[in-house]
Design goal:
alpha+beta, Chloramphenicol Acetyltransferase, 12 helices
Length: 422
């Protein structure tokens, strides 16, 4: 009996994906719920598992091809796993000596490891984002891991097997990190340059951001906020907060609460244009931009108006972990009505964030920097942050945008307002 493997539902407004990597080759044995192919959309990279145990009978969609929702990816023949298992068993067994090989580099410059260096480079150049993340997190050397995927590629199963068997760390791991993080093929006519195809995620990000600039009448307004009160509050209660709620008390939670307060007063900032209509949202799904090695992703706090500070911080923490593990799903990033982007974590002092269509507003947070400010008739050194609100001027007037940003500033400079709702 044969079972078809099809493209699953990819999420809101996502209708197609790119086949980035086959983790199994035709004829390989597969187990039920074992990932066999990796798809890349404009939002996430996701693995598609086999619903049954058997043998991968046919691969319909080649790597690099674009497939739509419900398109046929592969066919698995059930009931043949037992016959195919002996073929795959040696591949798994041979991982033991591969992991043991790092003992050899005890000698500083033994010629023996030099031989596998060529396939190691090839394997590194074809690492999928999920595999690359796992390798980098555990500081593994791809050259010391037995690759069982198609064309000698490493799969997540290969890396996890190496980790379970004691890892594949050695002194050469840092040296191999460079090609892992920057897969490229040198141009034959100029070895000083590298030409790397844009990933689907990067191509769609570029297209969407450019569309936002071309479509929206985008404008940015700025203000600055004194972070003294929030920093003092956080310093006083962060340990107790983490003990009681199991989540770190950061600054993002305060900004999410402040933004929701401002959105209730200025609903146009939470609205979107649809044709000749304006859709006002009476709920607040706040997207929090997160940078990953594959690009910027925006997981969404659903119905954040009903979430307490602890719920917001713990959910953001979960999103961050899932983003690092490459496990953010389409549902995590669907339905946002407003976005907050924090460039300050990278040291940005000021920027003009680009809208995340079809949303009409995005708030940019930036680096906290001590600066002299006038307090009454004296000058004091205060921790200050520049805030930037980019907005669609087609539906948001300048007065609304400026007032919105002032409202956020007031809530952050006096966090008691958030508690009292004033």
């Amino acid at each position: 009996m044969s079972t078809e493997i099809k493209v699953p539902v990819l999420g809101e407004s996502v209708v197609e994906a790119t086949v980035s990597q086959w983790m199994k080759a035709k004829g390989d044995a597969v187990q039920a719920d074992e990932p066999i192919v990796e798809l890349e959309t404009d939002k996430v990279t996701l693995e598609v598992p086999s619903p049954v145990a058997g043998v991968l009978e046919d691969i319909v969609a080649a790597e690099g091809s674009t497939v739509g929702v419900d398109a046929l990816l592969a066919v698995v023949a059930e009931g043949k796993a037992a016959a195919a298992q002996p073929a795959s068993a040696p591949a798994k067994d041979t991982s033991t000596p591969a992991v043991a090989e790092p003992a050899a580099p005890a000698a500083p410059a033994t010629p023996a490891p030099a031989a596998p260096s060529a396939p190691a480079i090839g394997a590194a150049m074809t690492l999928s984002p999920a595999v690359r993340k796992l390798v980098e997190e555990h500081q593994l050397n791809p050259a010391a891991i037995r690759a069982t995927g198609k064309d000698g590629r490493l799969t997540k199963a290969d890396v996890k097997a190496a980790i379970d068997n004691g890892g594949a760390r050695n002194a050469a791991a840092p040296a191999s990190a460079a090609p892992v993080s920057a897969p490229a093929v040198a141009r034959p006519d100029d070895p000083r340059e590298e030409r790397v195809p844009m990933s689907r995620l990067r191509r769609i990000i570029a297209s969407r951001l450019k569309d936002a600039q071309n479509t929206a009448a985008m404008l940015t307004t700025f203000n600055e906020v004194d972070m003294s009160a929030v920093m003092a509050l956080r310093s006083e209660y962060k340990d107790e907060f983490e003990k009681n709620h199991g989540a770190r008390l950061g600054f993002m939670g305060f900004f999410v609460k402040a933004v929701i307060t401002a959105l209730t007063e200025f609903p146009a900032v939470n609205a979107e244009i649809h044709g000749d209509d304006i859709i006002y949202k009476n709920f607040y799904n706040i997207g929090v931009a997160v940078g990953t090695p594959q690009g910027l992703v925006v997981p969404v706090l659903k119905d954040a108006q009903h979430m307490g500070l602890a719920d917001i911080e713990s959910t953001i923490g979960e999103f961050g972990q899932k983003a690092r593990d490459g496990k953010l799903g389409p549902a995590d990033m669907a339905g946002g009505t407003f976005t907050i982007s924090n460039g300050g974590v990278y040291g940005s002092l000021m920027s003009t964030p680009i809208l995340n269509p079809p949303q009409s507003g995005i708030l940019g947070m930036h680096k906290i920097q001590k600066r002299p400010v006038a307090i009454g008739n004296s000058v004091e050194i205060r921790p200050m942050m520049y805030l930037a609100l980019s907005y669609d001027h087609r539906i948001i007037d300048g007065r609304e945008a400026v007032s919105f940003l002032v409202r956020v500033k007031e809530s952050i400079e006096d966090p008691r307002r958030l508690l009292l709702g004033v």
